[in-house]
Design a protein that fits this description.
- The protein is α/β, with parallel strands linked by helices.
- It has helices at residues 37-44, 52-67, 70-81, 98-106, 157-169, 184-190, 208-215, 255-260, 269-279, and strands at residues 14-19, 22-26, 33-35, 89-92, 114-118, 131-133, 143-149, 171-180, 204-205, 220-225, 228-236.
- It has a domain at 66-181 and 207-279: Rossmann fold (3-Layer(aba) Sandwich), CATH 3.40.50.150.
- Helix content is 32%, strand content 21%.
- Strands 6-5-4-7-8-11-10 form a seven-stranded mixed β-sheet, with helices on both faces. A four-stranded antiparallel β-sheet has the order 1-2-3-9.
- Helix 3 packs across helix 9.
Length: 282
């Protein structure tokens, strides 16, 4: 019998990839890609595919390099896309906290507003005062913006739904978040090799349709980012059209947020990075 999609519960008979002895299925209805159900059940029961500390050890160099390059670019994009003034910004799943350190280096004035949250921290994590050990549910304050970078593909639908529920509790109307994760259509067409469980820990490739099914019940509007098939955005209780092209927002940023990217020490280099990064893939 064909497995049922863990998001929409429709039958998904098509195996799109077999890797390391593991099947990945493509749902014909919500268009997500998911690892076989037994693995999802195992992870949801609290049994990780591999030791988190072992995973952190393998990824440390990649995570450090990304934090001082592409991840920093995603942060400043999110700042430009947000339509309300940012008082507190969160990096969801901050891992070692390298992004906290990168923001402190390149945007020292913004650093006081920037927090990282990690439920399963590496032993050698950053000792930055804004590193929060725990989940979003453990945080006592709200956020106006944030990023969640290369995390969603490691989360089961149940885990992502919990994240969405917790994020809604920590958001105000207009709060804006940018997620980076290879979306299902991109994976199917160009990057099936990212579907690896034991080497990469990837459980899912979400589609925009499947993300809508998870996030919309919690009050979020899901939008793709034109030219970036490996990212999407969510906005809490958005008063803007669902079909809006978020890239157009860079030309009319919230003045307070634009000021965050023009640092007294670093000048306007991060503001320029945000503009160019938003336009780079269009």
């Amino acid at each position: 019998m064909a497995p049922h999609c863990p998001i929409c519960d429709e039958q998904a008979p098509n195996i799109i990839r077999q890797a390391e002895g593991i099947d990945y299925h493509l749902c014909p209805h919500c268009e997500c890609i998911f690892v076989q159900q037994a693995i999802l059940d195992l992870v949801d029961s609290g049994n990780p595919v591999q030791s988190r500390q072992e995973y952190w050890r393998k990824q440390i160099h990649t995570l450090r390099e990304r934090s001082y390059s592409s991840s920093l670019a995603r942060v400043v994009e999110a700042v430009l896309y947000a339509r309300i003034p940012i008082n507190t910004f969160v990096d969801i799943g901050t891992a070692h906290g390298f992004l906290l350190d990168a923001v402190s280096t390149y945007l020292p004035r913004f650093a006081g507003k920037f927090f990282g949250v990690e439920a399963s921290p590496p032993l050698d994590r950053s000792r930055n005062d804004h590193y929060i050990v725990g989940s979003l549910a453990d945080v006592s304050h709200s956020f106006e913006a944030g990023v969640c970078l290369e995390v969603a593909q490691h989360l089961t639908p149940k885990m992502l739904d919990t994240l969405a529920a917790d994020l809604a509790q920590r958001s105000v109307p207009g709060s804006f978040y940018l997620f980076s994760t290879a979306l299902a259509d991109y994976v199917r067409r160009e990057a099936q090799d990212c579907l690896e469980l034991f080497q990469k820990g990837h459980l899912m490739a979400y589609s925009i349709k499947s993300l809508e099914m998870i996030f919309e019940p919690h009050g979020f509007t899901v939008r793709p980012i034109r030219g970036k098939p490996w990212a999407f955005t969510v906005e809490y209780r958005s008063d803007r059209p669902k079909t809006e092209d978020v890239i157009d927002r860079i030309w009319t940023p919230c003045p307070e947020n634009k000021a965050l990217l023009n640092d007294p020490m670093m000048g306007g280099v991060m503001y320029i990075l945000g503009i160019e990064s938003a336009r780079a893939y269009v």
